[in-house]
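Fold this complex.
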Amino acid sequence: MSKPVIEIKNLSKSYMIGHESKAAPGTLTLRDSIAGIVKKPLELLTGHKLKKEKFWALKGINLEINQGDVVGIIGRNGSGKSTMLKVLSRIVEPTSGEIIMRGKTASLLEVGTGFHPELTGRENIYFNGSILGMKKKEIDAKFDEIVAFSEVEKFLDTPVKFYSSGMYVRLAFSVAAHLEPDILIVDEVLAVGDAAFQKKCLGKMKDVAGQGRTVLFVSHNMASVKTLCSKAIWLDQGKIINFGDINDVTDHYSRSSIVDDSSLKERPRTTPISGEAKIVEIAVANTGSQSQTIDSTKPTSINFIINSKSNINSEVILHTRITTSGQPILSFSSEFTSKTFKLKKGNNAIRCNIEPTNLSGGVYSIDCSILFAGTGLISHIDEIYDAKTFTVKDVKPQYSDTYITQREAVYYAGHTWTQG
Amino acid sequence: MQELIIKPSKKLSINFKELFAYHELFFYFAWRDVKVRYKQTSIGVIWAILQPFTQMVVFTVFFNKAAGIGTGNPAVPYAIFSFTGLLFWNFFSQSVTRASNSLVDNQSVVTKVYFPRILLPLTSTFVGLIDFAFAFIVFIGLMVFFRVSPTINSVLLLIPALLITFIAASGIGMFLSAINVKYRDVKQAVPFLIQVGLFVTPVIYPVTAIPQKYQWILYLNPMTGVINMMRSSFLDTAPINWPLTGISIAVALLSFILGVIYFKSKEREFADII
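Structure:
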């Protein structure tokens, strides 16, 4: 038996998180800067440093992947999927451990990396191809194929800044699709473009997988993971929970994401938060009913209990969204309705009233975050993914014996048919 | 089969084989920068000629005619004297400016794809050569106008002059670009430092404006050595002072070596903190 194509030995990656520096260096606001000017000398004088914490994005990963395996990586947001791909792509260095890759590797963490809006389609094909690791000779040889696949022949000599987003994505994917590596690392790139093109991409990816290449694939879309992959890795908090046959792992994963509802207060958060207040309870109910399953043709409400350490003078807003298999379905924000809240010390009850959603039957999950109003998306007071799951009753169309469930489609809408 | 081992890097090693494997990308980066630079401008590359030319005219009017700064040799016209300085100073200063922003400007690429990061500051300096070539056309024009005839020697000395400028600019550029990843203060500081640099480099005035025993201080600036070497050989201002030029060359080499070492030591965290 030949050696595994990818061998990962005791791989770990840690980040230092400074709790006070909420914004990335490039996005510091003037207010932050002024505060910084005052704080910095004080810190130097008193020797009080920023509170830094080590965050393990990956911890002790051991893995062997054989040639021809098409492996999906699944897990919640912040579970380490993207970090894993970045380490495998050599964009970030591991903190410890090692990886042995046998074969020519190409990674595709984004479509259109390095695309320059001022350059024409033709120029971008060459530049992007080169950045993805193709030689000029290879690009020359595949140029016509790339152009044909992208369906943008007519605009080849137009700067891509004039392209529609669809054309842009098609061109970008086409370049990537014509890489011929032994190992291909792909992150979420199929989540772009229109449905028809997505299907074409998926087909192309299947071809790639069929040629005995090894593919590592991260997606939030369970359906595409299942159609594409033969194996799956389930990551949670930087560790491998399960690795094996695709159906075993995805089943295990979807069962488990139903149970973990307990004690929101204690659950470790996967993203940096400032923690002045915490979401401690979430309940979903049809308005005026206590039933466990939701009838999506009726109004629904999500009830939050937020525990605040003290009276917070600044106003806060809440974001929440409904997801399935990690894919966002519906998003609600008090910002959309220009509503802000003031949190008192202790428990605060906040409710989001939702009109009938017409979600089809299945299990859904809720992400939620609290932010200070007007500070942008960077300074979360609390943020929790998959905080709560709830079940929506299967929808039974009036004249049909079958129920509409998530497997069919996420939404159901009443409809009529006519001819002529 | 190609085998690749990914693990935390410890020592400062430069993989020359890998650098060579990426030489195409190096030129693609340069090609893109050149292509993009003058897109949507109406006079395009003429800017590369117009800028140093205007600078020279302004310097001649204000510093030479109004303030009375000379060339140190009455036979040498001030216009071509200052242009020789500008030719190399602009190559150096523009390269340093572009190189220091190269990583941050290419943030989206740095966080999504692997390639030897050192390519970015190096291409920025390399692209400076293109502007140099255009400005050099003006220089040839001035030589014809002022009837200055170059010798074989002066043309040959162009090569080391360009090389020293390239080495000094990319060394400093690599150093600044690595700091810029963490501290965006660099972006603010560089234009200011470049402005100061113009005055501590003998672009506007001759080295002889400084008392002889302090001249070595000026030569700590690699550009002093380069500019003076070019003036001596093209314009015959004074013989080249090799011991002092040696100081400039040594500083250029040192800044290149230190630049590479600093860059390599910070390289691993670029994608994490950029």
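The helical segments of chain A are 30-46, 81-88, 121-131, 136-150, 165-177, 195-210, 222-228, 246-259.
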